[in-house]
Design brief:
Structural class: mainly alpha
Shape: globular
Radius of gyration: 15 Å
Mean pLDDT: 87
Number of strands: 2
Order of helices and strands: EEHHHHH
Largest sheet: 2 strands, antiparallel
Number of helices: 5
């Protein structure tokens, strides 16, 4: 399980609740499109994904305060470390694992 040290250690989980939050907040209902925007460096998408992954940690923090906490994290640890934590969170996701299995099955059928 991935953690990020903000105001306190926060658990990150990319599951159905996170996906629903991302869809609601961005209006994008295809997770691949969300990842494409993330790859393009869309900061709002990165922040939304991080917020979504912390839903299970009862993150009841104002969006501006959350942004400030991310700024402090980046000052201390850098963008690469944040990327590593997000990657770890995605790799641990049951949703992502199931999606990869499904894709592999579909490729074998072709």
């Amino acid at each position: 399980m991935a953690f990020i040290q903000l105001d306190k250690p926060r658990r990150l989980k990319f599951g159905f609740n996170a996906l629903e939050y991302i869809e609601t907040k961005t209006g994008i209902d295809n997770i691949d499109d969300v990842f494409k925007l993330l790859e393009k460096g869309k900061i709002s998408v990165l922040k939304t994904i991080l917020e979504a992954c912390m839903i299970g940690d009862n993150l009841n923090i104002d969006s501006l305060l959350f942004g400030d906490m991310l700024d402090e994290y980046l000052d201390k640890h850098g963008l690469d470390k944040l990327g590593d934590i997000l990657k770890e969170t995605m790799e641990e996701s049951a949703f992502i694992k199931a999606s990869k299995k499904q894709s592999a099955k579909e490729k074998k059928k072709k």
